[in-house]
Specification:
With 216 residues, this protein is α+β, with helices and mostly antiparallel strands. It contains three helices and 13 strands. It folds into two domains: 101 residues, Beta Barrel (Thrombin, subunit H), CATH 2.40.10; 88 residues, Beta Barrel (Thrombin, subunit H). β5 and β6 form a beta hairpin. It starts with 10 loop residues before the first strand and ends with a helix.
């Protein structure tokens, strides 16, 4: 009688520095429409959790991509105020390969050291915030990274170069577009110790962002 071997379950929680991108649906990817940046919060053998600017519907197909874990496809199985959970569509062989990548990544975490202020560009601890235009239009967005002089942003729109926007409470000019978002240069260099607080969503916007996560 053959014995069925149970595949091990591996999970890695509390990941704060892994950035990636995701595509909602099966259509071709288009920046600001269905292609966005994201931040990985948890990854396991069968699912992952993301912080994201646009939250898909339950059951919607999503494809994610991370340098350390490759491309992972699945369906949305849970929504959060700041993102969603994706359960993978995968074979046993693909699951084993992912487990190996998670194990390798976790081993690197134990041996690597980093200083958030050592680099000119920083990943915020809470990347989901709000972006606004001078005409009072605003919506949730995700900060990919930032420096004292600017930020890379992903949102459900693609502005024109030269457009004026406010990220959190810091105003600047769109200076470059890229595949999953755009770069904003602040009008004035910011204080390195206070900038992350200024880039966060104003208090009056937090409830709006929670409501939008449930209707997106």
């Amino acid at each position: 009688m053959s014995e069925v071997m149970e595949r091990p379950t591996i999970a890695l929680h509390g990941i704060a520095t892994v950035a990636g991108r995701y595509v909602i649906g099966a259509q071709s990817s288009h920046p600001g429409i269905n292609l966005f940046a994201c931040r990985l919060r948890m990854i396991g053998s069968d699912s992952l959790r993301l912080t994201a600017p646009v939250i898909p519907q339950l059951g919607e197909q999503v494809s994610t991509s991370f340098a350390s874990f490759g491309t992972l496809n699945g369906h949305v199985t849970r929504q959060y105020d700041d993102g969603f959970e994706l359960t993978f569509d995968q074979t046993g062989q693909e699951r084993d390969a992912l487990n190996a990548r998670i194990t390798s990544f976790s081993e690197k975490l134990w041996t690597a050291s980093s200083d958030r202020r050592a680099s000119s560009r920083v990943m915020p601890s809470n990347p989901r915030t709000v972006i606004a235009r001078p005409d009072n239009w605003s919506q949730p967005c995700l900060i990919v990274d930032y420096s004292i002089s600017g930020a890379a942003v992903s949102a459900a729109f693609q502005p024109a170069v030269g457009e004026i926007v406010t990220v959190g409470r810091v105003t600047g000019e769109v200076v470059r577009l890229f595949d999953f978002g755009f770069a904003v240069r602040f009008f004035e260099p910011q204080n390195a110790e206070s900038i992350e607080g200024l880039l966060g969503a104003p208090d009056e916007w937090r409830d709006v962002m929670r409501r939008s996560s449930k209707t997106a």
